[in-house]
Specification:
heterodimer, A: about 300 residues, alpha/beta, Rossmann fold, Alpha-Beta Plaits, six-stranded mixed sheet, four-stranded antiparallel sheet, about 30% strand, globular, B: about 400 residues, mainly alpha, D-Maltodextrin-Binding Protein, domain 2, 2 domains, four-stranded mixed sheet, two-stranded antiparallel ribbon, 18 helices, about 70% helix
């Protein structure tokens, strides 16, 4: 099922939350919706989910506006997560699946499989309020995929998960992508988006900043970044006119080469000032592109 | 419809499968009877202690005549002869309940004085007034040279037996005490159930917000399915509860009714109970949609409590006016309240219970209530749609009204 968003706008009073966003997400691909907090990601997603109505623009499922039946073909993991705490986990999953039009008999084996996969089998007959925060979040993901949707909308799915759970979830999402599901993944963690998404849209203040396939975007920015690992004082980099913007950590930097400068010059400049462990010319990371684009846009 | 049914079934289960619901369903009638009938009976039939009252200045003829009747009412008179100061000390030390002073001119209208250490029990004062008054009157008649027995026969009061012609033509004997008790019991019952279910829906809505399940729900069902699923689910639970209560009442009336004299009460007929369910449902839907809107506008349960006070005040009003309504069910005050939509569910039912209101008034009241419910549900759906997704914002009542105009 293809999802098209066309020039969608939404304002709350004087605040223009979404201001003309367009994109298309197709089956078998993971589409990344990126942006800083408050960029309009969640509002866009709520409009896609038909929870709030856009002021302008269209949202199409297989080229048609949403029909009542379409809600059953969409799975949603909202950013604001919650479950009915007083219910037994198994009953809760059945209830949510039934609201997506699934019969009790159809889903029990899927419930068992997903609980097993996320290491939650022993909690099946317990009350939801006994689950830890991370466990609840995995349950929430199960709720979004239990009815075998064609479109899966995940709003910040990894926020707050431990590394083991993150890995389990990442694998599950990639697998669903291979099963020809249309997946929309909203995140502000760029490393994740870079590794998982084939296409991305970066938005800020409700507007598009950058969009396209991850490969195309990275090649568009060329091999003009260097990654340097070192011992010593990184301050000398800041005064250097060979480089532009820098993302720096105490012993690691990703720097953009200034216009006209080349990597050899920079290396020559640094020798003797820092003890260099690694010096590599790379395409910029999505993280770097993201930050540069946001700063340019503002 | 299918999804509405799912939400309804879920809401019903979450309401009816709780311990509180089961306990209230079983104990409800007993609690209600306990809250209304028992205090009335207790105040009517409190056993009187054998209290001691000393008399001063009472002629012995009077003393001899009143002593026995008062003793039967639990009041023991002590003959006089003690100085007032001593009596006063005894009263203060609680050796005596009190002392009674007869003035010399008591036959020609002088006032007797009862001195006690505590606030005098009105029943003791009334009993002494009755017994002593009778004897003093007899004494006056005798001193005037008349025959007290003949005069008393002439002065015998006329008795009026109140009977009511109901629409069916039957003349039912009425008894003010049971009348008031039944009226108050049912007023209380309607008030409590409408309030409890209304608040329960308000809480259920606000919990969708606080537990953050609302987005998941709205990604599967429409706002109207969610709103009506909640209201109808609780309606189903409340009907189950009323069904159990009415069943208990009918069985109870058959089994133990005759022993308590309940079978003589025409108010507990099947048609009255059906009216009870009708007016409960009218009140339920009106206040359920009101509380659902307040729940959607509220940020948390505390905020819901702040927003719901006007609704509660309106609901309490028929409770506090129960007296005038029950004793004068045909007054323009009672008729007005039985037509004003927010008080109508309780007041119209109470009027039907204790009197026989005109059919057009009953139909008009039901019609007004149905219209009010439709309007309230439309307003509620509007507030619900806007409010349900708003988190982190506290509304004042004024802002809720502004939402309606938006």
């Amino acid at each position: 099922m293809m999802l098209q968003v066309r020039n969608v706008k939404k304002s709350y009073g004087a605040v223009q939350a979404v201001d003309g966003i367009s994109f298309t997400a197709s089956p078998g691909k993971i589409y990344g919706l990126l942006g800083p907090n408050g960029a309009g990601k969640t509002t866009t997603i709520r409009m896609i989910m038909n929870i709030i109505a856009p002021d302008q623009g269209q949202i199409l499922f297989d080229r048609k506006p949403i029909s009542p039946g379409d809600k059953n073909r969409i799975g949603y993991l909202p950013e604001e997560r919650g479950l009915y705490r007083k219910m037994i986990l198994n009953d809760l999953l059945h209830y949510f699946a039934s609201l997506k039009g699934r019969k009790r008999g159809e889903v029990q084996s899927r419930i068992d499989d997903w609980l097993e996969r996320f290491d939650l089998s022993e909690w099946k007959m317990r009350k939801v309020e006994e689950l830890s925060k991370g466990m609840s979040q995995k349950v929430q993901f199960i709720v979004s995929v239990l009815h075998d949707p064609d479109i899966l909308v995940l709003d910040e799915p990894f926020a707050g998960l431990d590394p083991v759970s993150t890995e389990a979830l990442r694998k599950a999402v990639l697998e669903l992508g291979k099963q020809e599901k249309t997946i929309l993944l909203s995140t502000h963690i760029m490393e994740q988006a870079e590794r998982m998404c084939s296409t991305i849209l970066i938005i800020d203040s409700g507007r598009e900043v950058l969009s396209g396939s991850v490969e195309a975007i990275k090649s568009r920015f060329g091999k003009n970044s260097v990654i340097i690992e070192f011992d010593g004082d990184a301050d000398i980099l800041h005064g250097c006119d060979l480089i532009g913007t820098v993302i720096s950590y105490p012993r690691w930097v990703e720097a953009e080469l200034a216009a006209g400068a080349n990597a050899d010059e920079l290396l020559g400049y640094l020798v003797g000032k820092l003890s260099i462990k690694r010096f590599e010319v790379v395409t910029p990371s999505l993280h770097k592109i993201f930050i540069d684009q946001l700063e340019q846009g503002r | 419809m299918e999804k509405l049914r799912k939400v309804l079934a879920h809401e019903f289960r979450m309401t009816a499968a709780t311990k509180a619901f089961i306990i209230l369903t079983i104990l409800g009638p007993f609690l209600l009877i306990g809250m209304t009938v028992v205090p009335a009976l207790v105040s009517q039939k409190t056993e009187r202690r054998g209290i001691e009252i000393a008399v001063a200045g009472m002629p012995s003829r009077i003393f001899n005549a009143v002593g026995e009747p008062l003793r039967q009412l639990g009041i023991n008179l002590q003959a006089g002869g003690q100085p007032i100061e001593q009596l006063e000390r005894k009263v203060r030390e609680e050796d005596l309940y009190g002392y009674l002073i007869f003035p010399a001119d008591f036959l020609s209208g002088g006032t007797l004085e009862l001195v006690t250490s505590e606030f005098p029990d009105y029943r003791i004062v009334e009993a002494m007034k009755g017994v002593i008054g009778q004897v003093v009157t007899d004494e006056r008649i005798r001193q005037a040279g008349l025959d007290s027995a003949r005069i008393r026969a002439m002065m015998r009061p006329v008795d009026i037996e109140a009977k009511q012609i109901t629409r069916s033509g039957a003349k039912a004997q009425t008894d003010t005490f049971s009348f008031i008790m039944i009226g108050i019991t049912f007023t209380l019952m309607l008030y409590m159930t409408i309030l409890l279910y209304g608040q329960s829906i308000g809480r259920s809505v606000v919990q969708e917000k606080t537990s953050k399940t609302v987005e998941i729900m709205l990604s599967s069902v429409s706002e109207t399915d969610l709103l009506f699923g909640k209201i109808l689910g609780q309606a189903a639970a409340s009907l189950l509860q009323y069904g159990v209560w009415i069943g208990m009442a009918l069985i109870g009336a058959r089994l133990i009714g005759p022993a308590l004299g309940l079978d003589r009460l025409p108010q507990l007929s099947l048609s009255t109970l059906l009216y009870l369910v009708l007016f409960f449902l009218l009140g339920f839907f009106l206040f359920a949609s009101l509380f659902a809107a307040l729940g959607a506008a509220a940020q948390d349960e505390q905020n819901l409590g702040q927003l719901s006070w006007p609704a509660i005040v309106v609901l309490v009003f028929p409770m506090v006016s129960a007296g005038p309504i029950i004793t004068a069910p045909g007054s323009s005050f009672a008729v007005f309240l039985s037509l004003f939509p927010l008080t109508a569910p309780i007041v119209m039912f109470v009027r039907i219970l204790v009197s026989d209101p005109k059919t057009w008034q009953i139909l008009l009241s039901v019609g007004i209530q149905v219209a009010a419910i439709v309007i309230m549900i439309l307003l509620s759906a509007k507030i619900f749609r806007i409010g349900i997704l708003m988190t982190g914002k506290r509304f004042t009542l004024a802002e809720v009204f502004r939402l309606l105009r938006a």
